[in-house]
Specification:
By secondary structure, this protein is of the alpha+beta class. The protein is built from six helices and eight strands; from the N terminus they run αβαααββββααβββ.
Length: 200
């Protein structure tokens, strides 16, 4: 399937589920503030993100090359320690690798942390199992979310919503944080995929 078809398929899922799309994160930011994170800390982290030379999509490409045969299941920007990095989790069979990628240089910082699937919560294990039946990658969902919001993604991951696997992407669009939730077509349901359109 071409990137264009995938974009249309994911965007179709977005349009068909408007309650998932464009949700602002005001509530989540408010929750973070209630838990001790100040508005200044959030602003500082967003400022570091705006200054990052490496985009989240570039970080995904770097991480994808580190562990051949894995699938990326989670990525997030982290400026909390004073340095700007992306934390990327990849998965294959029973193992999860977490790599740290410098957001200024694209260099991999330190060695990957490796953990076993058995160390995860039941929900996370079920999400990873469900991911095996999905042909689309997290990077594809990031591309669709960025194009749809004209913004830059700062995190992405998997979530289970009413028994369905959902890609959740957080995008900074202007000064607003937006959460985009996309349900990928399953590998077994080929009828939900659009046919290739002719290019003129």
């Amino acid at each position: 399937m071409s990137k264009k078809q995938l974009s249309v398929a994911l965007l179709t899922s977005l349009i068909c589920a408007p309650s998932y799309a464009g949700t602002t994160l005001d509530g989540e930011i408010g929750t973070a503030q209630e838990q001790g994170a100040s508005g200044e800390a959030i602003s500082r982290e967003l400022e570091l993100f705006r200054g990052a030379k490496i985009s989240l999509r570039q970080a995904l490409k770097i991480a994808d090359s580190l562990h051949p045969g894995t699938r990326i299941v989670d990525v997030s920007f982290d400026g909390g320690s004073g340095s700007s990095v992306y934390r990327v989790k990849t998965f294959r069979q029973d193992h999860i690798w977490e790599d740290t990628i410098d957001a200024k240089t694209g260099q991999v910082a330190g060695n990957a942390t490796v953990s076993s699937m058995s160390e995860l919560t039941l929900e996370d294990r079920l999400n990873l199992i469900a991911m095996q039946s999905v042909r689309q990658e997290l990077a594809d969902a990031v591309l669709v979310a960025e194009n749809n919001t004209s913004g830059k993604a700062l995190s992405g991951g998997l979530m289970n919503e009413a028994g369905k696997l959902i890609f959740v992407i957080v995008v900074l669009s202007g000064t607003n944080l937006k959460q985009i939730m996309l349900e990928p077509p399953s590998a077994n349901n080929r009828e939900t995929l659009p046919r290739r359109s002719k290019q003129h």
